[in-house]
Amino acid sequence: MSLQVFPDAQALAQGAALALAGLIETAQNARGMCRIALSGGSTPRRLHHALATAPLAGRIDWTRCAFYFGDERVVPLSDERSNARMAQETLFQPLGIPTAQIFPMVLDPTQPEAEAQRYEALLQRFDGVFDIVLLGMGSDGHCASLFPDTPALLETHRRVVANLAPQLDPPRLTLTYPALEAAREVAVLVSGPDKAATLAQVMTGDSRLPLGRLAARRPLHWWLDAEAGHLIATPTTET
């Protein structure tokens, strides 16, 4: 496990972007390409901005990155709730990433099961092992779209499933535990005081919470702001 706690959300975005750049460069040096699964949510927006501006925009060899997604709402790409749309607006367009390097989870929102199978087959082209997976955490302890008490938590073989639980509206596609456990690096970004109590519970490896279950099974990079991390660490950068 590695832990970095930053004074505020902006410092988190800058520090996490710098740490992520290092992970990308390590993957590229080792294997030529970096295959990265992005997260949705408000915290990654700031991270994307930091990546897409100087100095990191010019430091990273973006031509050797392939972009995937850890989860997605089953909505059209044009929908404002789409993680792919958010990444397009905040990262891909500013950096000029060509579409050949971008792999959205949902192309046909009318066929969630078929889309999950399509994405699973896409991942099998590289054995489904991501170099980096970025995750956030919900106040209920969910990560990707692995929500408490939903069917996707039970998957033990497939790396992508449609999570069609009644409480999820719209339904989601998500990477599963097999995909997250197989990834070479997994980093978790958490920001805000409303996450502090859940985060402290998750970091004990409490398997009743989806992210706690993952934390109990593999090492993670934790990138936090002081409000999220005040119950577990002081608001200074640590490694």
Detailed description of the structure:
The strands form 2 sheets. This protein has a 6-stranded parallel β-sheet. A hairpin with an 8-residue loop joins strand 6 and strand 7 (172-175). 46% of the residues are buried. The longest helix is centred in the first third of the chain and has 23 residues, at 9-31. It is built from 9 helices and 9 strands. It has 239 residues and is of the alpha/beta class. It has a single domain (2-229), classed as 3-Layer(aba) Sandwich (Rossmann fold).
Which features characterize this protein?
Rossmann fold; disordered C terminus; three-stranded antiparallel beta sheet; alpha/beta; 239 residues
Set out the fold topology.
Elements: E1 2-6, H1 9-31, E2 34-38, H2 42-51, H3 56-59, E3 65-69, E4 71-73, H4 83-95, H5 112-124, E5 132-135, E6 160-163, E7 172-175, H6 177-182, E8 185-190, H7 196-202, H8 210-217, E9 221-225, H9 226-229
Parallel strand pairs: 1-9, 2-3, 2-5, 5-8, 8-9
Antiparallel strand pairs: 4-7, 6-7
Helix pairs in contact: 1-2, 2-4
